Structure formats: C-alpha cells, structure tokens
Methyltransferase type 11 domain-containing protein (Extremus antarcticus), 286 residues
Amino acid sequence: MSTFTEANRQAFDGLSTKYDSEPWRHRMTDQIKKGLHNRKDWIGVRWAESDDLQYGRETKLLDYACGTGSVTKAIGSWVTNIRGIDISENMVKLFNEAAQASGLKTEQVNAVVGDLLGDEVSANLDTPEYQNFDLAVIGLGFHHFENPMRAIERLTERLKPATGVLIIIDFLPFDKDEPAGPQAANAQTIKHGGFARQNMEMLFKAAKLENFSFSVMEEQVEMFGKDGTSSKRSVFFARGRREPTTWGKISKWIGSMQTVASDQWQIGPREQVQAQLGPMGGRIRE
C-alpha cells in the first residue's frame, strides 16, 4: 500500500465513527440516491426480478470504496448479490453491521477490506466471487484515487464482457487547495480536484469501455467543514459498458452472418435472384 493510500485508510478509519451522523452527509446521500433512482434506466443493467433467485439468475453489484454502504443502500434492492470493498477496516465493519441488522445474509451482501488499485491485488480478491459483475460503482471516492486510469482498468476487468457496466459518481472540477471548507480536514487524501466530462470520456475509452455517457445532477451538494464553513459542488454520473471479448465479437459476427443466410434461404432461390434483378429486371420465367 502506497503512502498516499495509507493516508486515505487512516483518514477514513478516523471518520467512520461520525460518518453517518453528520446531517449534511445524510442530505448528500439522499441527493445521490435520488440521482441514481432518476437514472435507473440510463444505467442500462438488467435489474433483478422477483423470481431470479428461484431460477438461479443473479445481478451482481460491486460497491468499490464502499464506505458504510451509501450506494448499496440506494440500489441494493435492484440486485441479488452485493460485494463491497474498502481499504478502511472500520468502514467495512459498519457496512457489514448495517447489512446484518437488516436481516441480510453474508452470501447476499458482504464487504471486505481490500485494495484493487495497488501494485499487487490480495489473494482474497482474486476469486470467482469478485469477478463477472453486472455493475460496478464508485460513489464519491474517485477523486481520492492516486491513479484514476488504473482504477478504471482494474474495475473494468471485474465486469462481465459485453454487458457489465461501470458507474463513477464524483465531482466536477473544484479547488482542492481551497484553504477552508470540508476538504481542509482531509486535504492530504484528496488527489484530484474533480473531473471534467472530456477527462472521464478519455479514461473510459482508454479502458475499452463502450457507450460512454455523462450526466450531471441538477442540484448541487453542500459540504461542511469542522469550522462550519461550507462549499457547494456539482455531482456527475459517468457510465460505460465493457466491450465484448475477441471471441465475443467473433461470435456476434458469425451470428449476424447466420441470420442473413437464414433470411436468404427463407425467401427461396428464385426470390433471391428476382431481388437482385430489381424492378427493371423482369420476371423469371417459369
């Protein structure tokens, strides 16, 4: 773990005890929950249905940098299986306590301490349980990441090819060196002063994510520091879908060829020739 990542771990371990008790955080969480709900169709995932578990169908969510579970609480009812990952042990503890208090089983919802963004990924995250997600979400953690490109690449690798979607929720550009306001207390953990649309699109394309889309929440969020000073920020939602594997692309191409051939055989040889001759070609004699 790098020095910067360790600083983040310590900072969020320290914040954990009051993280869910500050009123402004509650308001911000509710705003983002509303933003996600307003974009349910835009996200583009096949959401869970009532009989999915009965027939063994899963919709898997990876809540990365999960904290105490804001994203999971917002959209958890839309999926069948949730895995959270965070570098803060205290945040993970609170996440799991909240899940268990809601009567959820560990196999349904569970978070672990881990880091997908370091030079090496721990063995406990290199199992099938942490692969082939339908959706991965980073909720307001992206500006804390030391290497955004690596973050997107590593999470993309965990998505289902051709269908898996990555959502990043973060801030439009802000002054990360502002002397007052909420960032003053943990300025050492903020690596980037937000992101513009063109930056996010470039990152998504470099990670081979398709169908990029970018949506800004109409209402700004307001954040407060220890000294009572506040600042407002605009929140965006960035979306991309993992491209198919090479074999997936070949299979799709073969499938399209078979469809064309099938359509041609259905109309018969005479009709095929007539179609090629066109209206000026006359009729084929019997």
Remarks:
- The chain has a mean pLDDT of 86.
